[in-house]
Here is the input.
Amino acid sequence: MSGFAENRSVATVALVVGNYDEAIAWYVERLGFVLADDVDLGGGKRWVTVTPANGQGARLLLAEASGEMQASRIGDQTGGRVFLFLETDDFARDHQAMLGRGVEFREAPRHEAYGTVAVFADLYGNLGPDRAETARLIGPFGIVREQAETPVAFSRPSSYVAGS
Here is the structure.
């Protein structure tokens, strides 16, 4: 035992954005997220969180940049690495829905040892994977991956064939 509570999880992850309202619109309209909180904190600050429609997983805190240093990180919070992973129960369905909603994929789905991957970008250029075996999606954003019994990313059924 480490001395920490056994029942802990990552609940909220901050993402620096250029504008609260444009970020809300993108995550809700393009990725199908739900606006969970939009609280005025005064002084132009807001507590804005979005969450996957099923309510599972961490929320994203859309934090509007304040100052030049924060603004310089918009679209590159992780130095070009994939930042977040989202999960779905149907890779092909969600990949097609995202394409139909104008999500910019940087590559076609490809097969890797850990699953099927297709990197996409959010409205600011942050990269995420779109991976698929229970079907998972990685973002800011990018991969939908296929991986069995893993609590990070997208999984797809083993019968899924890229491009079908």
